[in-house]
Inverse folding.
């Protein structure tokens, strides 16, 4: 992504030290009064506390302006015990009472995206945290913390990193959750395991944003039709079967493009008397296609990781033009999100290899300390337990 715009403040600091590791971003607020405080003002406050200067690396004003605080390379002073590996973002206001402005949310998401990319930090809840997750404090206020907890901030940051999928306007949150749940349950009822479902959904998300009426974007202009218009025209026959088959436009959940597949989808939907853009119809059609790929389906049923399915589905089923490592990683990333959202809570990690990278060191340490079962094959930790262990570890580090 393009670097975000930062207003340079050219502040003078006392002695600073170089930060060797950067693997976490911590959000803060001003608290007390809902004031639109500037980096310069905070610099003054922190100098008065005999610090080297402002402790945060960035300040985000109410109009969304991002101001430079402490130099990015320097160890900050914003999260006791955690400064050596974190960047601190201060968002001006009191979010116990007020809410961050839309501009602040957007700038914060863009800044998180930029930092995650430049420092290779995973853009997820393990690495983007509120101050209060590291130690007992109300900072960054319940209203800002809520934007972390409900996924709004991180989802938006991701859209800055990956680009909004197919440029579609995301459906309303409730509808969006219904669509995802419906797709998840559809494959669950077909007997697929959670890895397989997540891997398929990550791919479909990359293709269509999981929007069944999605017409490939560049065709919206060449055909002069929106998703809705195209769907309607195919349904009412004003855009005929032949046109639909041979226009080379990707359409639907899987962005069916090849003429034979589009023709089969058309016949399938018409045969059921359903709209070409109907979600259930497309899922049933997709399933019928998978059943024809019996070898792939067998592999999906025996899948043992999200990444395995995600890549299998990409290479053996979707076969998009871009099959690069980057594209695979992106799809695996989406797949992992669906897994965490729908399948993760039932998930149990049986050995250290299965534990996600961000928690591996901590879990390993706890094994060595024999707090948890040290025998590698019988780890049997739930995803919630792993999260709890990592959270506990962070707090312990603080209080020691
Ligand atoms: Zn704070």
């Amino acid at each position: 992504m393009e670097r975000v715009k930062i207003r340079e403040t050219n502040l003078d600091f006392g002695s600073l030290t170089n930060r060797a590791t950067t693997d976490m971003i911590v959000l803060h607020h001003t608290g007390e009064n809902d004031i639109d405080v500037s980096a310069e003002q905070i610099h003054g406050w922190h100098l008065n506390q005999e610090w080297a200067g402002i402790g945060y690396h960035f300040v985000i004003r109410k109009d969304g302006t991002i101001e430079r605080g402490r130099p990015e390379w320097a160890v900050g002073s914003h999260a006791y015990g955690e400064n050596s590996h974190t960047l601190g973002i201060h968002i001006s206001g009191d979010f116990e009472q007020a809410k961050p402005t839309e501009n602040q949310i957007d700038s914060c998401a863009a800044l998180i995206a930029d930092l995650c990319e430049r420092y290779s930090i995973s853009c997820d809840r393990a690495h983007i945290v509120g101050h209060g997750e590291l130690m007992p404090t109300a900072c960054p206020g319940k209203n800002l913390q809520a934007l972390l907890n409900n996924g709004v901030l991180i989802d938006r940051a991701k859209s800055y990193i990956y680009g909004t999928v197919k440029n579609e306007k995301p459906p309303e949150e409730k509808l969006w959750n219904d669509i995802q749940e419906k797709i998840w349950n559809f494959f669950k009822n077909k007997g697929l395991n959670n890895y397989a479902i997540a891997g398929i959904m990550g791919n479909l998300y990359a293709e269509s944003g999981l929007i069944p009426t999605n017409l490939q974007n560049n065709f919206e202009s060449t055909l002069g039709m929106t998703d809705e218009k195209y769907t309607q025209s195919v349904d009412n026959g004003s855009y005929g079967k032949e046109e639909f088959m041979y226009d080379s436009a990707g359409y639907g959940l899987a962005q069916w493009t090849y003429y034979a597949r589009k023709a089969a989808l058309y016949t399938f939907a018409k045969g059921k008397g359903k709209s070409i853009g109907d979600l259930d119809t497309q899922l049933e059609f997709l399933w019928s296609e998978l059943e024809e790929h019996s070898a792939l389906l067998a592999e999906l049923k025996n899948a043992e990781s999200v990444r395995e399915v995600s890549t299998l589905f990409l290479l053996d089923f979707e076969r998009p033009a871009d099959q690069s490592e980057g594209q695979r990683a992106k799809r695996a990333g989406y797949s992992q999100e669906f897994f965490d959202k729908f399948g993760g809570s039932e998930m149990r990690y049986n050995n250290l290899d299965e534990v996600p990278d961000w928690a591996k060191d901590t879990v390993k340490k706890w094994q060595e300390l024999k707090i948890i079962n040290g025998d590698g094959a019988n780890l049997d930790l739930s995803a919630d337990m792993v999260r709890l262990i990592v959270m506990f570890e962070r707090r312990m580090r603080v209080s020691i």
Observations:
- Strands lie at 24-29, 58-60, 66-68, 86-91, 128-130, 348-349, 381-382.
- The two ends are 39 Å apart (CA to CA).
- The first strand starts at residue 24 and ends at 29.
- Residues 28, 131, 139 surround zinc ion (CB under 6 Å).
